[in-house]
Amino acid sequence: MIPQMATLDPAFCRLRQERLRALMAQQGLEAFLTTHRHHIHWATGHWHAQPLTSVALLVVREGPTMLVLPDEPDSPPLADRILSYAAQKVCTLIEDMDAAAAAVLAPHLVPFPTAIGVAGAVAPPFLAALSQPPQNVTSAFQMLRRLKDPDEVRALRRCIAATDAVYAEARRLLVPGLTEIALFAALQAAATIAAGEPLSGWGNDFQCGSPGGPPRNRPAGSGEIAVLDIGVGIQGYRSDLCRSFVVGGPPGQAQQEAHSHVVSVLQEVEDRLRPGVSCRELFEHAKSRLDGWEGGFFFHHLGHGIGLDAHEVPRLNPQWNDTLASGDVIAVEPGFYREDLRAGLRLEQNYLITPEGAERLSHFPLDL
User: Which of 70, 202, 237, 250 has minimal CB crowding within 10 Å?
Assistant: First the structure.
């Protein structure tokens, strides 16, 4: 089990609130509203572990940070005001939780003469309390969250350590005849035990003999490759790592050759990681080395940022033109697919971009 600790540092939470206020000033906003528990944790250090109840955060640019909670927290989060509402009656949850939470915040939403910024989906009762339509600043907010503070990197390391425990369990369990859904359930249990608390996120790919997808009630076949692309979420942060294992024995010659090639491409990309590097150029390099090699295919992105969302900035994808920056935490995932490989493989590592280059955060072996 991973040792439990306070995930986020109050000093960095306060710094993130000030960065958020600077963004609001840039966007001409008087306040910022979110009902996403991951965002609230990022800003205040309060992790709302009960997903059945509603929470909200209002940050006033020239005023207080207000947090709406169903009950007073055991330890006060980094918010200037706590607004409480009754989420249950004799332990039965009320039927319109969002409306109850919005009602205690509504008096603080009315006075602003300009639009309030929102990020992500906000429950309708909160939007109904606004005096005018909100301004969606989701993209700008993700850019603000792009460069990770040291406490966030520590949180991501914790997620990655739990993912290591998942892959150790996968190696132990993966035999011909095991269904993908049974593997999915066992690995989720391993991740939860390693985390020492309920997961805030879990996914992504659990299929055998396929490039990826959700688990099926289908037994693994001997000689197939299980492409396990797994994200473990703990208190809002999440890893994103992929390993590929041959079911029921050593890899065949073609599988081993393809694996060696993907490993070499992953190392080439790792060697190029540093601030100022074009993410599109990294993708194009990997594509030139993988797509069409020995008649196989590389058809997906090369990677993306990770943090509170499964995919964040920067994107190692030709549809964007991002550039690496110090403080990025990224997932790099070259893959290679061909029918005779049953059906291909993908390998993924997580990295922190540093002023000098990159630090690899993931360490579970890559072998088949």
Answer: 250
**Is residue 355 domain-resident?**
yes
Whether residue 70 contacts residue 156, with contact meaning beta carbons closer than 8 Å, is answered with no
**Residue 329 and residue 200 in one domain:** yes
Which of 47, 25, 28 shows the shortest CA–CA distance to 36? 47
Tell me which of 125, 145, 165 is where a domain ends. Answer: 145
Q: Cis before residue 343, ω within 30 degrees of 0?
A: yes
Is pLDDT of 291 > 50? yes
Is the same domain home to 129 and 278? no
For 68-100, write each residue's pLDDT tens digit: 999 876 666 789 999 999 999 998 999 999 999
Residue of 205, 207, 198 whose CA lies nearest to 233: 198
Q: Could you tell me which residue, 277 or 74, shows the higher pLDDT?
A: 277
Instruction: Tell me which residue range forms the domain holding 69.
Output: 10-145
5 in a domain, yes or no? Answer: no
3-class secondary structure, 140 = helix
158 phi/psi in degrees, rounded to 5: -65, -40
Residue 180 burial class via C-beta count within 10 angstroms: exposed 0-12, middle 13-18, buried 19 and up: buried
Q: Residue 210 is part of a domain; what is its CATH number?
A: 3.90.230.10
Flag the least confident range among 34-43, 122-131, 191-200, 262-271.
Answer: 122-131
Judged against a pLDDT cut of 50, whether residue 20 lies above it is answered with: yes
